[in-house]
Amino acid sequence: MTTILKPKKLAPVRSSQWLAIFLVGMLLIFVLVPLLFMFSNMKSQDFSFVFSDSKFHQSVANSLIYSLAASLISVILATAVCYFLSRLRIRHKKIWVLLFTLPMLIPTLSIGLGIRSLFGTNGFFDLIFHVKFDGLGFFGLIFGSVISSFPVVFLLIFDAMSYENKGVYDAAETLGVDRFSSFLHITLPYLRVPLISAFFAAFTWIFSDYGVPMEVAGKVSTLPIYLYEQVLTQFEYGRGAVVGLILLVPALAAFIVDLFTKENSSGEVSQQLIQPSKTVSIVGYSFLAIVFILISVPQICFILLSLINVFPSDLNLTFSHYVSAFSSNAGLGVGRYLGNSLLMSILTGLIGTLLSYCVAYFSTRQQGFLGKVLHFVSLVSLAIPGLVFGIGYVFMFKSTKGWFYGTMAILVAVNCSHFFATPYLMARNALSKLNRDYESVGDTIGVSRFRIFWNVLVPNSLGTLVEMFSFFFINSMITISAVAFLCTYANQPLSILINTYEKQGSYEMQAVISTIILMTNCFAKFSLMGVAHFINKKTGKREDKFMPLSRFQFDLLTFFERKGPGKFTQRQLADSLTISVGLVNKMMKDFQEDGVIQISEDKTLSLTDKGLKLIEPYKVRKAVIIAAGFGSRMVPVTLETPKPLVKVNGVRIIDTLLDALYAQGIYSIYIVRGYKGNQFDQLLDKYPTIKFIENPLYNESNNISSIYMARDVIDRCYICEADLIIKNPKIITKYQYCTNYLSSFVKETDDWCFTMRGNYIHKVDIGGEDVEQMIGISYWDEADSKKLRSDVEKVFNSRGGKENYWDNVPLKICRKNYKVAVRECARQDVTELDNFSELVMADPSYASFEAKK
């Protein structure tokens, strides 16, 4: 009997895959295809004319000169501002960040207008100081370009510096390295990649911007102005396309640099604890104030200009320009243009946010070729200037006039495409932090992916969605370059009126439009910030800068970090971590796909840089050692020597702890000293990074006074008793998953011990059966450190609070604020010498000590 083999059926394409294909098509049509249309419409005579035109050559040279100069100045200023913001103890730092990004809320034409009204002929500078200074030309171009690019550069560098390990500066300060040398040898090498990215971003922004040159270029020809003249003055779209191709070059270069450069940051966000000197603080605050004034000059000038009757002949203040602007005496009236801008910006925000979030969903939650294509095409929009987008859309869609070209729809489409990349990256970052197993679990129990998307992922991303909408809205309100070629009289947005009034020489009305846009964006920005804050607070969203790991993931990654590259079977890993082989297999697969671990050709397993960054937020930052007490039960040896400095078999007790900390790279160590405190200075010869905290109350209160004195440095740290002999240094580890106490299970004890409820400490007592005996080493994660600092201060200052042991604060008095786990070790790993007789048992040489006295 002949068996007929039927062809194997292909798996049906799911509806979600069809949606992903649709999104790929949309991105290709609205992002890449317009470029192809632009290139296809360039003719040989267009190239011949442009490249033989001396004005073009001069425009390229001028654009290169002021773009390079302004980019360099912008990066230097932003680096200095970020340095002072991160080093000084500034309250309300978010307000400073917002102030330094205010130029992002206005069109670049408005920045140019402010500079022109300040430094131009008969400008405010001339009127106030009676000094003739024509600020147009290269000075105005560089000054205006620095202001317009500064927020972008500032945000890039500030974000990079927020991940810097600032504890390194404490170590440098302790070793006597001055701040300038620290800046040269620590800060700049760390910022190498961010500075390169920031410079290219600034150069691309400045080189393709025509708002500032339109106002302040004067007789200096620039490439964007040359393009503008070819398209909107001479209607030579082919020549404009050639110039657009030139504008695309630096943007593509910047895109390639960002694509292939990798940041070398550690992800560590520890704070610098050594306070800057008064001189440094004064210099820093003065510098920040000066830079803020400089970047605020354009806004101040055009707001003032909008209130002047006739500039510069009649400087009387009036609101008549605003009244006139909203009247219908001239055409549609500003109200109608403002309505167009609001409609365009709201639609762009809604549609752009929806599309970018969906694209981010498919590129992060679904592996495969489609996800990679979506990610790449989404990032390409970063490399296309607005002017190039505008010309490309003209060539591609001019045949659709009446139903797409010339309508509000094309303005929304070009804005969504132009500003797509940044909101997409926001959404991608948010979605990457959400558990990837939701979809797998849903497939298993029959829950559709749409329900998981709508009921799980979207609610957990509401804060990010508001931020995405804010980005689309604000940029659509200020954009000119892309929509200038596409809008009509009926749908013209408000920002284009600045250009219109510039041609008419009506500076006051330009200023009015600029002020209206600034006020609108400020209102939108603060309102949306409030909404995002309310959502994050309501949903309990943590503002973590890392993706939380499960306990099993943490154990696996720290195992690889601890062991280093090696060959491990899944059975070996499962046995070492006491988990199932199936779970190990799943985690290994996920980590390998995400680039967290790598497997070499010879099957050697190791962590990648990405893997190290994932566990970096769990890295122990420092240790606080309590060593202030008298040690009365160790008399007579402690009559001359503090207990931690007593030698046992030739080794100081505290050295065993310090050696264990140093072995794990924990060099930021604070010792709280009191009794015979000066004797601890001898430790500095062997442990130079130690810093001391004085406790003058050690003889008047319990050990809570030591933690109270050290409360400001408690942050992701070990808190240790100083009288422990560490026999197994491995109990001190470089990484800790959560707040915990070191303990050892005992059948019976008369010492401090814990009763557990589930995985956490429920009760602390003196004496008990079948309990966890406390060992004086605990770890406090970032969230609990913050609570502990506050709770210790409250309890210490309360009536009778000074009589408490510090452990009572989190384990008894404020127990509801904490979930404290235990970390078990063997009894022989740590020895605590409670009295002199135990010291003699540990070191018989002390048997004759009392007799010698």
Description:
- 56% of the residues lie in helices and 10% in strands.
- The longest helix has 34 residues, at 54-87.
- The chain is an alpha/beta fold.
- Strand 6 (647-648) and strand 7 form a beta hairpin.
- Residues 1-13, 262-274 and 541-546 have low confidence and may be disordered.
- The strands form 5 sheets. It has a 7-stranded mixed sheet with strand order 9-8-5-10-13-12-14. The protein has a two-stranded antiparallel ribbon with strand order 1-2.
- It contains 35 helices and 15 strands.
Strand order of the largest sheet: 9-8-5-10-13-12-14
Strand content: 5-15%
Helix content: 55-70%
Radius of gyration: 33 Å
Strand segment count: 15
Q: What is the averaged pLDDT score?
A: 83
Give the overall form: elongated
Largest sheet: 7 strands, mixed
Unreliable stretches: 1-13, 262-274, 541-546
What is the terminal-to-terminal distance? 107 Å
Structural class: alpha/beta
Number of helices in the DSSP assignment: 35
